[in-house]
Amino acid sequence: MPSERRYGAIRPLAAPLSVAALLGAAILQPLVPPSGARAAEPILQTEESDIVTLPPGGPHRVLVQDGVYRHSKDGRVYVVDLDSGKLLGMVQAAYNANVAADPAGRTFYVAETAWERGNRGRRHDMLVAYNPLTLEPTLDIDLPSRALITPKKADMAVSADGHYVYVYDTSPTNSVHVFDAARKDVVRTVDVPGCALVYPWGGAGFSSICGDGSLANVALDKTATPSLTHTAPFFVPDRDPVFEHSPQVAASGHVWFISYSGLVYDTTLGPQSKIGAPWSIQAAAGLKPASDARAPFAVTWRPGGWQLAAVRARDSHLFILMHRGPFWTHKDAGTELWELDLKTRKLVRRIHLAAPSMMVGVTQDAASRIMLTDEAGDLTVLDGATGAPVRTIRNLGEALIFTVAPGE
Question: The pTM is what?
Answer without folding.
Answer: 0.87
